Each structure stands twice: as structure tokens, then as C-alpha cells.
Amino acid sequence: MKLSILLQREAIVTGINETGGDKRSIVAGMLDTLFANTGLKDEGIEKSVLLDAIMFREEELTTAIGEGFAFPHARINETLKGSYMLFGVSPGGVAFGSLDRKPVNFFLMSIVPGANSDMLLKSRAAFMRVMNIPGIREKILSMGTGEIWELLDKSGIRITGDILARDIMSPQLGIVRQDMSLRDVAIALHFYHTDSLPVVEDGNKFMGDISCYDLFTYELPNFFLSLKTISFVKHMNPFERYFNMDNRIRVSEIKRDREFPVIAPDATLMEIIFQMTTYNRHHLYVVEDGKLLGMIDRFAIVDKILLTT
Fold first, then answer.
1. By the 8 A CB rule, do 244 and 267 touch?
2. Residue range 44-53: average pLDDT?
3. Taking burial as the number of CB atoms within 10 A of a residue's CB, which of 119, 142, 260, 279 is the most buried?
4. By C-alpha distance, which of 108, 95, 105, 85 is closest to 1?
5. Banded model confidence at residue 51, pLDDT cuts 50, 70, 90
6. Residue 152 predicted with pLDDT over 70
7. Buried b (16+ CB within 10 A) or exposed e, 202-229
8. Which CATH superfamily is domain 3-160 in?
9. pTM
10. Residue 107 host element (H or E)
11. pLDDT of amino acid 229
12. How large is the average pLDDT for residues 218-226?
């Protein structure tokens, strides 16, 4: 099914909250549009029931996941027969309790039957495939409702049975270059508060990664890593060579002959979970044709899959 079939032309709203209002009034306004322009009004469910269900979910945990997006929704386990979706746009952005504390520009509201709750993930994944097209977010912010629907329709994006790596990956904010010193790497790891960073070259060419482990083991004697205990070592400073050489040694000189945690953008959610559990991967770099596209960590699975349904 094409995304533009589920998301009807009349269920696109621009200028969300231009007159001000709190989270509940924003949600109520979007529900008004859904009731007025879709078959939701014929389902026999009171608008107040849906509003309370959506707000209960928001109070439990906000669906404003960051980067300008929010996904308010309700799963109705009663008599709801169809699935309904609304796309709301706020060019100026509105406060919606976002996890990154930034305004929300794009709302995707979904009302689905409890027995078909996977529609939330599938439709959201299709929606984000459109929104991740370079430059499209800026275009939508300046478009009218009809233009937005035409854009979504022409994209040809379909709601498929699988959630893919490209649907849940995040942009890779921090990177390391081959010519950076170990000191610069340590600063970058500290700045991004992470255990590892990808090494890339021109054109975002993926060259592996470098981690705290690489810094810790730099210039340790080969036999050291095979020891069962170091209780007999009294005066060795494991970072002595690091402190003496860190500004002269470059990333390209560090031995990193290991298998890097890489996954293809079309890998399914099951493949992602398999990699993370079987090989104990804390994160995966999404790579296509040798280029780094983004990354997925365990938090992304919890944040975008487990806690948004």
C-alpha cells in the first residue's frame, strides 16, 4: 500500500498551533481534523476517548523523539475497524516535550486497532523514508496541504512488511579522520561521550572505527593481552607511551585489523537484532557502497521501536 493512500489529502494540516496552546490542545486540534475529514467519525468512538488515550501515552512517555518529529498515537482495542493517519506541519515549531528539548515541526498522528498495532511501526517507517530524502523537510515547511500530499504521492513510498536499518538509523554526528592524532581522537571521544567513532575519508568513505579499546591497548606489549592476571606487575604505567607519543601518532598508524560492526541499509529489524545479540554489538554502522550513511545503537531500538508503540 502506498503511504499516500493511508494518509489522505484531507488529513494534512499546516500551521499547527499558530495561535498558541498546550500539548493537549494541539492533539485535540489534530483530532478535530481527523474526525471532520476521514471515516474516523463513523467508527462510533467518542473523540474524548481518543484524546484521553493519546494523552495517556504522552504522559507515560513523550512521542516527540527529537529532530523535529512527534508521533502521537492511540491503539484502540474496542470496535475500531480502520487505521487513520494525520500529518501535521508547524513551520515555526511548537513545544511538545521533545526528548531533545527542541521544537516539533512534523507530527504524524496515528489511530490504529489494537490487533494491528504493527501498522504504527510500518507506516512510521514509510513516512521517515520520505522525510529522510535530502532537502524534503525544508520543502514541506513552505508548502500547502495539497502540495505536500502530491509530494508524498509522487515519492511512491510504500508501507511494507519490514522495518529496515535505513528507517531507524540516526545521522552519525562525530567522525574521525585518518590523519588525526590520538590526542585529537581522545578529545572527540570525550566530546561525543562515546566509546568509539567511525573513521571516514573524503566522500564519507567508511574506513572502520577507532575506540577507547584502541587507545587503551596502544603500545602495550603483545604478551600483556594474554595474561590471566597482572598482580605481579607493580610499576608499569599502561599509558606511558600514549602520553609521550599521542600528538605524533596518527589514526592511520593504529592497527585495527578486526571486523567492524557494519550493516546494510536494507537489513531488516530481525537482522539488526541478530547482529546486536549474537555478536554483542552495542552499535552498527549503516554502510552502502563503502559509504557511511548513519548508525544504529541499542538505544535506538528501545527509543524508536520498543517505546513508541
1. no
2. 92
3. 119
4. 85
5. very high
6. yes
7. eeeebbbbbbeebbeebeeeeeeeeeee
8. Mannitol-specific EII; Chain A (3.40.930.10)
9. 0.67
10. strand 104-113
11. 63
12. 57
Secondary structure (3-state) at 173: coil
Task: For the chain, state the CA radius of gyration.
Answer: 24
Cα first-last separation, the chain: 21
Domain 182-306 has CATH 3.10.580.10: yes
Residues 6+ apart with CB under 8 A from 235: none
Cell numbers linked to 158: 510504500
* Other CB atoms within 10 Å distance of the CB of residue 97: 15
**Residue 225 pLDDT more than 80?**
no
Q: What are phi and psi of 258, to 5 degrees?
A: -135, 170
Q: For residue 26, give the C-alpha cell.
A: 494541539
Per-residue pLDDT tens over the stretch 57-89 = 898 888 888 889 999 998 887 678 888 999 999
Sequence letter at residue 242: Y
- Per the prediction, the chain carries an average pLDDT of 84
- Binned at pLDDT 50, 70 and 90, residue 303 comes out as low
Q: Give the single-character DSSP code of 306.
A: I
Q: What is the DSSP string of 139-164?
A: HHHT--HHHHHHHHHHHT-B--S--B
Q: Where are the domains of the chain?
A: 3-160, 182-306
- The predicted pLDDT at position 123 comes to 84
Tell me the C-alpha distance between 241 and 66, whole Å: 42
